[in-house]
Amino acid sequence: MLSRDCATTQRRIVVIEESTPRESEVVLVTGAAGSIGSMLRRSLVRRGRHLRLLDTAAQDPLAPGEDADLIVGSFLDAAVMADACRDAVAVVHLGGLSTNDFEWDEYLDVNINGTRVVLEAARVAGVPRVIYASSNHAVGFHPIADEAVAPDYLFPRPDSLYGVSKVAGESLCSLYHDRYGLDVVCLRIGSYRERPADIRQLWSWLSPGDCTRLFEAAMTIQRPGFRVVWGVSANRRAAVTLDEAHAIGYYPLDDAEVFADEIISKNDDGGRDDPPFIGGSYTLPNS
User: Fold this and answer.
1) Residue 137: which domain range?
2) pLDDT tens digit sequence for 191-221
3) By the 8 A CB rule, do 53 and 68 touch?
4) 162 classed as catalytic
5) Catalytic: which of 107, 132, 162, 250?
6) Position 4 in a domain
7) Which residue in 53, 106, 126, 262 has a CA-CA distance of 20 to 30 Å to 88?
């Protein structure tokens, strides 16, 4: 993810460390220094895969034998993206501003205009696939029903300006598929954590292991077209379907329920006061 300070000021691309060139499929990752990007840098390593890791923030040096490039640059810059997309087989677009800590103009510049820059660069460079890190907050005001899980391709009901920016990003992805034939998989990511932290995350948790499995499935399914997929683990308290996840080959293994007793014991009300929406507390007026 980009910080407030570097989101719009970095306008250059610098390869700070580059592994020995080899015959590998190139996968570009934006926002590679963020929490998910840093984890995927390690877990997406495969023979014959070369990771091109792009971020404005500093990254750890390459490990011995690591098949990757470390690139300082901003995905907001079309020239940077044109260079970074060269010969890539996929773009994993993780970069952007998250949560509710930014102003509308910042979300517009980084999350919406920036996503368009990424998609356009992929199109021009002939990159066949983009995996877009969307969010459950694109549909945060959808109520959670006791008797049914939320379906795939749920109509947008964002719970925040951040959620609105993710809806716009999904729409751009849809456009680039329909108009230009780009394969795009939009992942409505839940709560990515090492372990769930609260009652809501007993259904929304996405473990690191399952996160890897999710992105690997999105990267390797043959000719996916345009997809919208929930990004959660195999949580027993499911609030969303995994039908489309299974359709792309994602089969999560982890379940937040193993943490349930500990989490519930720390919440006097058992979580009953949480707003009954997918976005949870993000739907509150002052959140």
Assistant:
1) 13-283
2) 999 999 999 999 999 999 999 999 999 999 9
3) yes
4) yes
5) 162
6) no
7) 106
